[in-house]
Amino acid sequence: MRAPSPKSLRFAALLGLMFGALSLGEARAANPLELNFWLSGPRYDGAVVDCDKALPTIATQFWEKESSFWNSSLKITSFSAVREVAFRPWQSDNIPRRFCTGEALLNDGKVRKVHFSIMEDGGFAGYGDGVEWCVVGLDRNWAYNPACRSAKP
User: Fold this and answer.
1) Number of domain units in the chain
2) Which residues form the signal peptide (predicted)?
3) 59: three-class secondary structure by DSSP
4) For the chain: N or C, fewer Cβ within 10 A?
5) What angle do CA 48, 51, 53 make, to 5 degrees?
6) pLDDT bracket for residue 27 (50, 70, 90)
7) What single-letter DSSP state applies at residue 5?
8) Range(s) of the domain holding residue 69
């Protein structure tokens, strides 16, 4: 590979200085076209589904995670005592979330606490509701440790 010539290095430096000088101009506000063209930002209505609507998603994702990553046959067979813990617990301009908790009966006969949140437009690529969940005692990759505390508000 050939080293760049001093002449091309000088040209690149001069070109960089010219573009740098052009960018030192006065900052201006967006014109009306720039304001109305795909710069609308997020519009959160706070329309988050109830806690019960997320339970099938949690059961499916739990089974997929256990069977795929941990080579386990554990499944959630049913839920009980599901209730809302908080709705939009932070500032109103954050992504709306509904925090819930409940008990999950697993196919090994054990009942474990499950903490989860439902986010408006938190699904894949921002479509649909997103669900984040943690089953206490089965957070094998420690994503929400200790004892799923990070899954709570």
Assistant:
1) 1
2) 1-29
3) helix
4) N
5) 80
6) low
7) P
8) 51-151
